[in-house]
Amino acid sequence: MNQKYSFSTFCFSLFFVFTSCCDKESCQNKKNSHEPEQQSTINTSNAEASVIRQSLVRINSTIQVWSASQPWDKSAPKKRRALGALLQGNRVLTTAEMAADATYIELENADNTRIIPAKVTAIDYEANLALLEPDNGDTDSFFKDLKPLGLGSAAKIGDRVDVWQLEDNGMPIVTDAVIQSVDIVSSFANGHFFLTYEAKGSMQSASNSFTVPVIRNGKLLGLLSSYDSKDQIVDIIAPEIIQAFIADTSDGDYVGFPSLGIGITSTVDPSFRDWLKLSDDLGGLYVTKIRKDSAAQKAGLEKGDVIININDKAIGRRGYYSDEQYGRLYWSHLIRGSLKQGDSVELTILRGGEQKQLTATLSRPEEPLVARDTYDQAPLYLLKGGLIFQELTATYLKAFGKEWQSKAPLNLLDIMMTPEDYEQDRNKIVFLSAVIPTPATTGYERLRNFIINKVNGHTVADISSLIEAFKQAGADGLHTIEFAEGPPRTIYLDAQISDTVDAELLKRGIPALTRE
Amino acid sequence: MINTLMRSLPLKMAFLLLLTLQTAGAQQTASNPLAPLQPSSAASLPQETYRSVVRIEVATQVPNYREPWKAGRFSGGIGTGFLIGPNLFLTNAHVVSNARRLLITMHGAARKHPAKILHIAHDCDLALLEVDDFTPFMGLHHFQIGGVPKLESQVRVIGYPVGGNRISVTRGVVSRIDFNTYSHSRSDQHLVVQIDAAINPGNSGGPVLQDGKVVGVAFQGLRSADNTGYMIPTPVVRRFLTDIKDGSYDKYVDLGISDFPMFNPAMQKKFGLTPTSPGVLVAAVTPDGPCDGVLQKDDILTAINSNAVDAAGNILIEGEKVNMNEIVERKFSGDQVTLSVIRDGKAMDVTCTLKPFPPSQMYAVQYDVKPRYTSFAGLVLQPLDRNLYSAQNLTNTRVRRLFTHYLDEAIFKEREDIVILTRVLSDPINTHLSGHVGTAIESINGVKVSSLKHAHDLLHPEELPEFFTIRCEGIERPIIIPGDKAEDASQRTQSSYGITSPANLEH
Fold first, then answer.
1. Residues B317-376: pLDDT tens digits?
2. Which residues on chain A are in Cβ contact (under 8 Å) with B469?
3. ipTM score of complex
4. Which residues on chain B are in Cβ contact (under 8 Å) with A278?
5. Neighbours of A46 (CB within 10 A)
């Protein structure tokens, strides 16, 4: 919940997609006109360059997401290509965007002479990082003339970096870029913000690339997560985040970045500050949300508290603190970018005009009622007599399109906004997502988006309990389905007819009636 | 998409240019030649009767719900009306809504006669006008109100649609008789007759004739389809004329229930019914509505006033299957209806006394009223209703929920108004507010807000608090306005944003 609201729209528009529709000729021209310039600006010598080229691995991945309306189906597959960085131990680092929902990933050398299938060994959707390893294949010969890259250390504003791309023919394109600012940015999973370098550099379309490595002093500085061609700004996932990710993977059990589990707002408004009794020498962040069972809640933080210091760093009115390395940085970096799960954090807060000291032990937040990031997770469903029941996820709501926040069903959106009103007796929200017209569902065709309270008298806490509840129909041979709202509040399903329908649906090609 | 068939007036004034845009689509399609009357038809009208179909020229002032202190938009339009009695011209409510000036012109004459509204019924889109001086209209034919035309029978539509200034006549066939939405109020459904005559903007309020009698009033069309015109059938017209006999219009009444069709075999089995049994399921009863305490959820409604209700909620009237509400549609406030139900397997008769249900006005577009609002230290507060909902882009899910469930969750019992913070006019005192605009005000200084007036009173107390603490629904961080600085901020924002009146609490 470490959210920085001002960025949420910014990051949406900047997916780094070099489309394949660029015609060869114009690309060629561009390349030629840029070549003399590049020679003079490359921050790497020719000898170094040939070494780095040996550390680049092409990644071809096939991505397939599940259908929201027919949860037993997958949507049409999409292909993505990127350039990864080879690390020690035959591991290839790329962004999570390349590996999330992937059905097949392969690694290809720069010369296009060798290909090997790969698997994901660790993935962090929040930080947008993934580590790949070869999966069954001639590993030795694939890596025989390749050289792993070392991990670089933190850079500073003004440093020059090289962005590496490969042409289809294997020739490198190296773009010089200058780090202009450092900020906290969300590059993949919505609402998760991590340290990111923003560098100025004029890139060009090369081979289709979702992400490419950024090199400084012969070492991997970071991965490019997006490129804004209008402003010519490259977003680079910072080395600290990559190091923490790699360190977390070392024991084979990936934990993820820690979180405090709060929502905040600024304290710039002078009237609001007077009301809070915040003196002018203090900054402060007003706590608006505390996630259930989060580190913040366990530490005793409450809604309405004002956070003044985090680990002795004074937090400003808009949430910025002074970082030794980077200058003004957003507070969430103190938690997510600098610490790991189990570390403790000292919080100085103001409550009712008085300062207090709290200690929080950082943790991973538990999955919320409405799951946010359901990458690589198939939607859970039950098909009964033609009624389609699903567990509600943010992915389902987002399937309503770009304007999902106004297009998605109102009652389901409300749960996502205020889950605390719905958590009683529930692990997840189970709802009727649609109705297939069958003999069992006559008259119900138009029902959809109803939240399920009970089936056959049993409270429905998730898909598993729904499946359990459907096992025993009432004595009259009817299933009773109760909705949280209506109308109608209750519908009935003939157990015998719906069983027949279910058998028929399987014959007609639906692969399975449930996924739990 | 249903649209009303009123024609905007091509006034040559710069600030009315928007209007011509509104009708651009209509202008393109307006090329119907005048359909000649067939002399062989037994029902042919003498030319003289055309003179009883009048052109109504309207100048309107449409209130501004975005900036409610403003005078609103001046515009106008053209519609049709017809004489049904001594100085009684029937037309559509939407033709004369928000009118500031009404002029009536007789067919074939140049003189414009000033007119005024006698009665207006927004829920069924009908209005009755009178001219200041009826003398020129003396001796003209008065149209008789007929019955509901049969399917496939021919009708004529007379009016002043786009494409010319003189009267236009078209013919068509009755294609459908159904319950449908009246787009003028957007929240009302009544009987509607669909005809395939080419009726166009400007036809609104014109008579639809069969055998020399009026069988309907042309009133709306369908944007997505050609040759589908809709008319208000005579049961609705008669009801309107009966309702106003006591000198005022009292609005429609309804049962206040939602029904669910009894099509599903399991549903039928549960309630002990067979596929041929009559009866529709009572799925919900509106709290405090006419049927609250009379009907219950899960009753099977089998008959209304001895008219059998089928599984889809339809009844048979005059040989036509229509929605069961058609019985109630023809009733008035205070009338009783007998409902036959099966409750817990037992058949019984219950009686419902029909009454108006004011909270349902939340969903009806309001006309001829000044928008209510109050302002305080640059904050503009307005009550939620259909007009505000359409004018402001209210996307907040809590606000949308309050709007959607205002009746069925009985929110109206505690909150006469849902008060929305619609605007923050920048002033040093409020410039750092964010995310509060477009949300519902929950409480002021700890007191739950029940209406706009209540909010206004809480913001203007006799004794100034140290801080005004205003909490918005779904937002944790309150709006804080220092008590001693509020009045100055109010004065400043009023003068710099041109708010001539700080509040309008009454319609």
1. 878 788 898 899 889 999 999 999 999 999 999 999 999 899 999 999 999 999 999 999
2. 275
3. 0.84
4. none
5. 8
Provide the b/e sequence for A393-420 (b: ≥16 CB within 10 Å).
bbbbbbbbeeeeeeebbebbbbbbebbe
User: What's the pLDDT at B6?
Assistant: 65
Tell me A422's DSSP state: T
Report the alpha-carbon distance of residue B240 to residue B246 in Å, rounded: 11
Q: What is the tens place of the pLDDT at every residue in A440-479?
A: 999 999 999 999 999 999 999 999 999 999 999 999 999 9
Confirm if B193 and B153 have CB atoms less than 8 A apart: no
Using an 8 Å CB-CB cutoff, list chain B residues near A444. 264
State whether residue A411 sits within 8 Å of chain B by CB.
yes
Residue A414 to residue B314: CA distance in whole angstroms: 35
- Residue from B46, B45, B50, B183 nearest B125 by CA: B183
Q: Which one of 1.20.1250.20, 2.60.40.420, 2.40.10.120, 3.40.50.300 gives the CATH number of domain B10-246? A: 2.40.10.120
Q: Domain-by-domain residue ranges, chain B?
A: 10-246, 257-353, 372-504
**Cα gap B438→B475, rounded to integer Å:** 11
DSSP output for B30-53: --PPPPPPPTT-TTPPPHHHHTTE
Q: How high is the pLDDT of residue A46? A: 66
Pick the CATH number of B257-353 from 2.120.10.70, 2.30.42.10, 1.10.3430.10, 2.40.50.140: 2.30.42.10
Instruction: Indicate the CATH number for domain B372-504.
Output: 3.20.190.20
More confident residue, A25 or B310: B310
Which residues are CB-contacts of A214 (< 8 A; sequence separation ≥ 6)? A161, A162, A163, A164, A177, A199, A220, A221, A222, A223, A224, A234, A236
Contacts of A278 (CB under 8 A, 6+ apart): A267, A284, A306, A350
Residue B9 has pLDDT above 60, yes or no: no
Neighbour tally for B206: CB within 10 Å: 37
DSSP A351-415: ETTEEEEEEEE-BPPPPPSSBS--TT-PPPEEEETTEEEEE-BHHHHHTT-TTHHHHS-HHHHHH
Q: How far is B271 from chain A (nearest CA, A)?
A: 10
Q: What is the pLDDT of residues A156-192, one digit of tens each?
A: 999 999 999 998 888 889 999 999 999 999 999 988 9
- Point out the residues of B that are catalytic: 94, 125, 204
Q: B263, A406: Cβ pair inside 8 Å?
A: no
Residue B381 burial by Cβ neighbours in a 10 Å radius (0-12, 13-18, 19+): buried
Amino acid at B500: T
Confirm or reject contact between A497 and chain B (CB < 8 A): yes
Q: Is A336 helix (H, G, I), strand (E, B) or coil?
A: helix
Please name the residues in contact with A194: beta carbons below 8 A apart, sequence gap of 6 or more: A126, A127, A128, A184, A185, A186, A187, A237, A238, A241, A257, A333, A336, A337
- Going by C-alpha positions, the residue among A336, A314, A361 that lies closest to residue A238 is A336
- Axis-axis angle for helices B397-404, A410-417 (nearest 10): 140
| Closest approach of A66 to chain B, Cα-based (Å) | 27
Q: Of A443, A452, A387, A439, whose CA–CA distance to B267 is shortest?
A: A443
